[in-house]
Amino acid sequence: MQTMRAVLCQRHGPPQSLELGTAAVPQPGPGQVRIRVAACGINFPDLLLVAGTYQDKPPLPFIPGGEVAGVIEQAGPGTGLLRAGQQVMAATLLGGLAEYVVVAARDVEVLPPCLSPEEGAAFPGVYGTAYHALVQRAQLRAGETLLVLGAAGGTGIAAVQLGRALGARVLAAAGSDAKLAFLEAQGADAVINYRTTALRDALRGLTGGRGADVVFDPVGGELFDQATRCLNWNGRLLVVGFASGTIGRLPANLALLKGYALVGVYYGRFREEQPAEAAANAQALRALVDAGKIRPPIHRVFPLEEAAAALACLQDRTVMGKVVVTIGGRQGAFHSAA
Ligand SMILES: NC(=O)c1ccc[n+]([C@@H]2O[C@H](COP(=O)([O-])OP(=O)(O)OC[C@H]3O[C@@H](n4cnc5c(N)ncnc54)[C@H](OP(=O)(O)O)[C@@H]3O)[C@@H](O)[C@H]2O)c1
Questions:
Q1: 44-69 pLDDT, tens digit each
Q2: How far apart (Å, rounded) are the C-alpha atoms in residues 86 and 71?
Q3: Distance 303 CA to ligand 1 centre (A)
Q4: Is 279 within the bounds of a domain?
Q5: What is the mean pLDDT of residues 70-74?
Q6: pLDDT of residue 331
Q7: How many domains are there within the chain?
Q8: Confidence band (pLDDT; 50, 70, 90) for 329?
Q9: 153 C-alpha to center of ligand 1: Å?
Q10: Rounded to whole angstroms, how far apart are CA atoms 154 and 325?
């Protein structure tokens, strides 16, 4: 049996409970490819999966890691145009923090030449989520006002960049002045520090009292509660996640008074239920990457040996953009980023 180096979750707990060990090299079946992983993007759901508090609970032990970039090493039957040697990126949900991962061909995309493997590993999950949220769920239109909470985080910064690319006015909200400076540099039209300013007052000032047409909320808790009072008439409040650890509550009369809608977002389920639309989204995102309109900002890169520290980073709320883990060096396999 061939083995590989992998980060193993043997028991649920904090990131520090992860262990670097060995696992069997996975074999691709029909419709699957094996990718030699160059880089793996770290996401908030990785923390929840390792803690055992995510909506999906894979059996122990498992290998975390939900977004990768690498090279196809072997393609099973029925994998279309994909072939060994191609540089690709993929949303995997699990398995990315290892030397090899097996992925369904439909979840694999060719790595755009303008992205480095680190950037490719920071792309499919978060940009896919933000695009689905803004386009299918909110039906965001050019000229509308979009408020993004947790805007310096992974899904948040994707929503900021995509909101701009779709022609919206983007108000980016985060919890420190360093993050506000980062968000201004990323092209936000206005920024709000929600640790020092009440969201509702800031929105009133920035929208002439009307509020936001669309709110993108990956944080939940107290911020969600504030956001329920920041919507314009006909607004859409997107429930994306609960990074605060608390699920917010909506007094239903607020939705009535402003004629606004509470809209759930679940990108993984969308890909399962509507694969043709998900593939069309991936093409639209590819066009935006090629046009230079979106690009994942990389906060910090860790080696595989420090994967636990990479996950722990997301807990201290200092990350601006994405944290990535590189695996086994990148000698010669990749083009370099433009
Ligand atoms: N619905 C979907 O399909 C989908 C897809 C992907 C992710 N998600 C969910 O979306 C949420 C965010 O994911 P992400 O990848 O964007 O996370 P992230 O990169 O870690 O960003 C989350 C942001 O939340 C804020 N935050 C507030 N309280 C926090 C706390 N106690 N701990 C950590 N961060 C806190 C932080 O910003 P400030 O410090 O500036 O407040 C941080 O930048 C997660 O709940 C994740 O499960 C949902």
A1: 999 999 999 998 899 999 999 999 99
A2: 5
A3: 23
A4: no
A5: 96
A6: 38
A7: 2
A8: low
A9: 6
A10: 15
Cα–Cα distance between 84 and 67 in angstroms, integer? 19
* Cα–Cα distance for residue pair 295/71, rounded to 1 Å: 20
Residues with CB under 6 A from ligand 1: 43-45, 48, 129, 150, 152-156, 174-175, 179, 218-219, 240-245, 265-267, 314-315, 317
Residue 32 has pLDDT above 60, yes or no: yes
Q: 209 lies in which domain range?
A: 126-268
Distances (CA, A) of 160 to 167, 169, 184, 222, 288: 11, 10, 10, 21, 14
CA of 291 to the centre of ligand 1 (A): 27
Q: Are 159 and 240 found together in one domain?
A: yes
Q: Is residue 273 included in any domain, yes or no?
A: no
> pLDDT tens-digit profile of 233-287?
999 999 999 999 999 999 999 999 999 999 999 999 999 999 999 999 999 999 9
Residues 148-174: what's their mean pLDDT?
98
Task: Please name the residue whose Cα sits nearest to atom 13 of ligand 1.
Answer: 44
CATH number, domain at 38?
3.90.180.10
How many A from CA of 38 to the centre of ligand 1? 25
HSE at residue 66, side-chain half, CA atoms within 13 A, is 24
Question: What does the H/E/C string look like for 192-224?
Answer: EECCCCCHHHHHHHHHCCCCEEEEEECCCHHHH
Of 315, 235, 281, residue with least CA distance to 130: 281
For residue 43, the CA-to-ligand 1 centroid distance in Å is 8
Shared-domain flag, residues 148 and 260: yes
CATH of the domain at 256: 3.40.50.720
Q: Are residues 263 and 131 in the same domain?
A: yes
